[in-house]
Amino acid sequence: MRDLPRQLTADELAELFEGRTRLVELLAEREDPLGSAEQVFAKLSEQEQRQALNAHPAIGARGLSKRSAAEQGEGDHPAVLTELAYLNQVYEEKFGFRFVVFVDGRPKTDILEVLQQRLERTRDEELETGLHELVAIARDRWQQS
After folding, report:
1. Tens-place pLDDT, residues 13-38
2. CA atoms within 13 A on the CB side of 72
3. What is the pLDDT of residue 81?
4. 3-class DSSP state for residue 47?
């Protein structure tokens, strides 16, 4: 496992966060970008926060990056994938941004339960949770690479 870096380029951060967003641009200017990601995220406008979350692929989506595909795994039952697709859509319609969760090797059936629970929360809770999950994913990706 690698230690968290002191500095990363915008390209390196874009890979970790699945896109070149305002969050990535600001983090590239900082020392300890992954250690300060949550503070930077809090300073972004809501539109920029949503942009960072929406850059991440949906759970169970097709056409994922190699890294996301490896993290999400394969071979789930079609009914689970259909339910995930449906609840992802419900989530995005309710909150206005993508459902982001640190999968950490859990099966999609477990993620489905998390998604169902998180649909019961408020928009503010989900925006904050999405941030924490996004940062956890980026940190894990850095440490695993």
Report:
1. 999 999 999 999 999 999 999 999 98
2. 24
3. 87
4. helix
pTM of the full predicted structure?
0.86
pLDDT band of residue 58 (cuts 50, 70, 90) is: confident
Matching residue, tokens 């998180």: 118
Instruction: Specify the CATH number for the domain of residue 130.
Output: 1.10.3330.10
The CA distance from 106 to 72, in Å, is 8
Mean pLDDT across 41-70: 80
Q: What is the chain's length?
A: 145
Q: How many domains does the chain divide into?
A: 1
CA 97, CA 114: separation in Å to the nearest integer? Answer: 16
% of the chain beyond a pLDDT of 70? 85
| 5 assigned to some structural domain | no
Q: Which domain holds residue 53?
A: 10-144
Residue 2 lies in a domain: no
The answer to whether the beta carbons of residues 30 and 40 sit under 8 Å apart is yes
